[in-house]
Amino acid sequence: MSKGFDDLLSKVSQCSKKKVSVAVAQDAPVLEAVEEARKRGIADAILVGDAAKIKEIADQLGIDLANFEVIDEPDVVEASLKAVSLVHDGKADMYMKGLLPTGTFLKSVLNKEVGLRTGKPLSHVCVFEIPGIDRLLFFTDVAFIPYPTLEDKKCMIDYTVDVAKACGVEMPKVACLAALETVNEKMPVCVESDQLSKMQDAGEIEGCIVDGPLSLDIALYKEAAEEKGALDRKVAGDADILVFPDIHAGNLVYKSIVHMVPCKNGNILTGTKAPVILTSRSDTVEVKVNSLALAAVVAEHLK
User: Fold this and answer.
1) CATH no., domain 123-260
2) Which of 45, 199, 209, 278 is 20 to 30 A from 177, alpha carbon to alpha carbon?
3) How is the chain split into domains, by residue range?
4) Where are the alpha helices (DSSP H) in 167-273?
5) Helix (H, G, I), strand (E, B) or coil at 50
6) In this predicted model, what pLDDT tens digit does every residue of 48-107 receive, in sequence order?
7) Cβ atoms 47, 54 nearer than 8 A
8) How confident is the model at residue 281 (pLDDT cuts 50, 70, 90)?
9) Confidence at 1, pLDDT banded by 50, 70, 90
């Protein structure tokens, strides 16, 4: 089991080397990330975009473009379609956002002819290495589905379980988070969390252990579970996956950790035929490299 991103990078070395297709690659942090990924043996890259601008930025960074395939397409929309079609056609294993609007990027992902749609909802998975916690934590959904329905949450769990298993977690423990650890009929989040737990009991959610509703402290810390008399819960202090009730709760926790804790993280978009790396402009090169490593092990798992 990968307990941190160093373990995850070691796991990548056991996979066949992957190839990432980058849409609109004329972006310095993205070029730095794919160069670092190449050096570490995570993935080679196909750079689709304005070739002159890509070369200009690469020269400034001291990156030798002889190590990459470059496809010249100055038009942003066409570049995204060409880049995603490489993954659709099996010429690349994963798809990465470069310097283009998120909406344009997602339109290419969902394109009926050359995209990566599966007919299921898309969802975001974030993986954290946090000091004091002896395992990777998997968060869903902190960035994509605003108000997930019960069926959305089932999909979110299924996707994140696959990601966790790709990272070596054999039987992921899933905590459906709420403000309380008891079912309150006046709080729909608590009711849905209980329903998801019962769905797993009934075999409707497989390959994991699901418990909810659970407060965050009980999900992560045995001491808190003991203090609150909750050690008998299926997921008490051992959660691998945290399912947030909505984007507000997830995003607030995500940003609190990123900005206040010396952590490592990586992110991918799931619900697609191949891993999609949708990082933010504010994400560091390290986050982008971690996201590429995460996508690589998921791509290997999907095979």
Assistant:
1) 3.40.718.10
2) 278
3) 5-117+272-302, 123-260
4) 188-201, 216-220, 222-227, 247-260
5) coil
6) 999 999 999 999 999 999 999 999 999 999 999 999 999 999 999 999 999 999 999 999
7) yes
8) confident
9) low
